[in-house]
Design brief:
Layout (H helix, E strand, L loop, with lengths): L4 E5 H6 L1 H11 L2 E6 L2 E6 L5 H8 L3 H22 L21 H7 L4
Parallel strand pairs: 1-2
Antiparallel strand pairs: 2-3
């Protein structure tokens, strides 16, 4: 069975976020958000997580973990650029730590931190 689709503007979504998210979670519908009458993004229920895993080729929790690791690395790089940190950046830090670990705990366990 195909999900129900609804297209609304970002402004209407902001104004009625609770009701619109209820549509997504309870009705399992897809909510298409538009900005200046052009499609901008889609809100889908977690029931469709398997489809997202196929698209991205990785489980959702790993994608979110990598997002947070990248965000932490960008913040540290900005702090280092402004002279707030003096730590050096090793090339081996370009690998991702296992899900659930931060860079610091991973490299400390490997004896490099």
């Amino acid at each position: 069975m195909r999900p129900e689709l609804r297209k609304i503007s970002l402004e209407k979504f902001r104004a009625n976020m609770g009701a619109e998210l209820k549509f997504v979670t309870e009705s399992q519908g897809h909510l298409w958000l538009s900005y200046r009458r052009k499609p901008h993004c889609v809100v889908v229920p977690m029931r469709d997580e398997a489809v997202l895993n196929d698209i991205y080729g990785r489980p959702w929790d790993e994608l979110m973990h990598r997002f947070h690791v990248d965000q932490d690395r960008r913040l540290r790089a900005a702090a280092r650029a402004h002279g707030l940190l003096s730590e050096t950046f090793e090339e081996s830090h370009w690998t991702y730590p296992p899900v659930g670990m931060t860079d610091e705990t991973y490299w400390a366990r490997r004896g490099r931190g």
